[in-house]
Amino acid sequence: MKKAVLVGQPNCGKSSFFSQISGLRVQTSNFPGTTVKLSRARVRFHSSEYEVIDLPGTYSLFPTDDAEKAALNFILDEDFDIVVNIMDASLIWRSLEFTLELTELGKPMVVILNMMDEAERKGIKIHIEKLQELLGVPVIPVIAIHGKGIYDAVKSFSMAVKPKEIHFTKHVEEAVERIEKRRNNRFLAIKYIEGVIPSPKEFVRDVKEIQERFTEFHGIPSYEVISAERHHLSMKIAEQVTEKKFRKKIELDEKLDRFLLHPFLGYFFLLISFAFIFAIAFWFGSLIEDLLVEPLEGFSVSLASSVSSPAFKEIISSTMDGIIGGVGIVLPYFLPLIFLISLFEEVGYLSRVAFLTDVVMHKMGLHGKAVVPFILGYGCTVPALMSTRIIENKRDRILSALLIPFVPCSARTAVILALIGYFLGLWYAIAFYFADIVVIGILGRILSSFKREPSPELIIEVPSYKAPSLKIILKKVLFQVEEFVFYAWPILIAGSIFLGLLQVFGITNYANYIFAPFMKILSLPPNLGITLIFGFLRKELTLVMASEALGVDVLKLNSVLAIKQILIFTTFVTFYIPCLSSVATQWKEFGWKVVVLSIALSFSVAFLLSFGISLF
Q: What's domain 2-159's architecture?
C-alpha cells in the first residue's frame, strides 16, 4: 500500500477533496510531540490501495506556526510515496509558488487543480496540457465541493512521476548546486540556505558564506532571495498557462461584500446572522425535543415500574434521565448549531466575521488573530484554546486563553437554549448572548490594562463565496455528533448513574450541605449544590443534574424554580469554571498558573454576575 501526502495552501479546498475520497473512514491522531491533528484514510481504487495523509494547510514550507512546523517535520521525517498537491485554480499565480517548492522534494507528484468553477467565474482560462508540460507531472482539474473530477484525480495517483527540476537565476542556482552536490538532496540544500533547518557541521561554513553573499548582493535575507526566485518563476509559468478574460460585470462576491464587509452595515448583517443561528437552533431544538422527550419519559416510567427495589428504581430513573438529557434535550439544540456554523464556514462567511470583528478585538487589547479562536469557541472551547497558537505574542495568547472560556460553547448553548430560551423566550436567550459578549469585552479591557502592549493588525485571507456542499457539511456534523455520543454521552449517563448511587446512599445531602451557604447567597435551592460538581465534568450534565436534584423533569423546572432563579442558575453555570477537557487543554498549552488564574477568574465573574441578578 502506497502513502500519498495531501498538501495545499489554506482555503484551497483540500478538506473538501479529502472528504470526497475518504468518506467517513478517517482516523485522526496528533503529530508527534504536538497537539496538531493529522488525518489519515485508506482509499481503494480498483486494484490499488492508498493511505492518504492530510497535512495542515500551509502557504509554504517556511513554517511560521505549529501546524506548518508539524507539516514540514512530517515531510522531513516520514516516508511517503506520492505528493498530492491541491491548488486553488482561481489563485493559480499564488498557488504555483508552493507547487514549485514541492517540486524541490523530487518525489513522485500529482497536481489537483481544484476550484475550476471559481477560476472560470473570475474569467481565468487555464491550459492544463501546457501546465503539465512545464511541471512535468499530471494535472487534474476538479471541483471537489461538487465531486467533479474526483475519479480522475484518484486515478492519477498511479501516474505520479517526479517533476521537472525548475532552476533559479544562474548565481542562485550555482549556490544551491554547491550544497546539493555534497548532500544529493535539492530540497535540503535549499532549506539549509533558507535557514529553515540547521546545516550539518560539514556545510555550516559554505551555507553561511552563501547566506552572507545573498544578503550583501540583494540586500535581503537568503530566505527572501529564494522566495523571490519562486515568485518570479510562478508568475512566469502562470502567464504561460492562463488567459484572463475581461469582465464587464461586477462579480457577485464584490456585490455581497459591499454590504457584508461595510463598516456599518456589515455589523448589522453580522447580528442578523447570529440571531438567525440561535433562532433556528431554538426552533429546531424545541420541535425535536417535544418529539423525543415524551416517549423516552414514558419508557423510563415503565422501566422503573418493572423493578421492585426502591434503590434500583432510583438508579434506573437517574440513568434514564441521563439518556433523556443527552438525546432528548441536549442533542436537539446541539445539532442545528453545529450544522449552521459548518454551513457559514463552507460558504465563506466566517472569514468575513473575523475581518469585521478585528477592530473589536483591538478595542479589547487583543491581537486581531484572536478572532478566529473566539469564533471556534462557539463550537468547542478545546480547539479554540489550541488555535491560539496562531497568535505570535505570548501576552495576547495568554489573554485569549483567559477569555475564551467565557464564550458559550455548544454545550453551554444547549443549557442556555434549554433553560432561558424555553422558559423565558428566544429573545431573552439572544439578549443573554449579547450580554456575554459585553462581559468578555469588559474583561478583556481590564485584563489588557495590566500589561499594555500594541497588537499588530490582522492579515487574513477572505476566500470567495462558495456554494456549500450538503454532503461535506453533514460529514462535519456527523463527526461532532460521534464525539458527543462516544465522549460526552457516556459521561452524562455515568454521571447520572453515579448521582443515583449518591442519592440512594444519601451522600448528595452532604455535598448539598457543604454548598448550602453559597446557594443561599445566590438565592438558589440548596439541592442544586451537587450540580456544581458535575457541571465541571461536562456542562450538559447540569440540566440532568438539576432535574435529578430537584426531583422534576427538566421541562418542568419552572414549577420549583422562579424565573429569576432559572436566570441566576443559567448565568452561574455558563460563566463558572470551564469543563474538565478545557481545563486539561489549558494546562497542557499554558501551564498550571494560567489554569489557576482562569478558574479563579471564571468563578469570580460567575458569582458576581449571579449575585448581582439575585439582588434585583
A: 3-Layer(aba) Sandwich (3.40)
